[in-house]
């Protein structure tokens, strides 16, 4: 696992767009995450959606979105203030080095200033996506046991995690 590089996250600005458009997942992983170009376009149209870049030593290696309205994740409400995580990925060239775990920790840390009132972070993960499930469970997400059937590639687990 690579520990020496600095991993940080920041909100996407237009300057990042060309570099972000170079990021890819593997072909089978495309079932699990949207392509970045439509995701960036969609985030621009949705006022409650914040596109975020994952940087390794200032180089973009990944991406995610934070949804201010967690209800947009699985079409349900939560009894505590919640935000959603969507479209999280690490570029295929950088996978398998522990960088997603570090990026997720940085993303959670960032939420304490970006959405200080949020108590829960919620997300959907495809039932076949064992790598992502392992990542999230290691990061102290809890599987609610609820399945969401609205995805384009099969059922998804609804996970959530308490925010510090
Ligand atoms: C899921 C993803 C973000 C993991 O990125 P990564 O940088 O390779 O993950 P890490 O190296 O930090 O590993 C995190 C955990 O996942 C596990 N993992 C990573 N790839 C795995 C694989 N192919 N199979 C099984 N487990 C895997 C690691 O072993 C590690 O668990 P451990 O700490 O218990 O050993 C990356 O594979 C990805 O971008 N996938 C495509 C997009 C996607 O599925 N996003 C999630 C949408 S919900």
From TrEMBL:
GO molecular function: acyltransferase activity, transferring groups other than amino-acyl groups
Keywords tagged on the record: Transferase
Domain of life: Bacteria
InterPro entries: Acyl_CoA_acyltransferase, GNAT_dom
Segment forming the signal sequence: none
Residue stretches making up the N-acetyltransferase domain: 7-164
Alphabetized CDD domains for the sequence: NAT_SF
Protein name: GNAT family N-acetyltransferase
Organism: Dyella dinghuensis
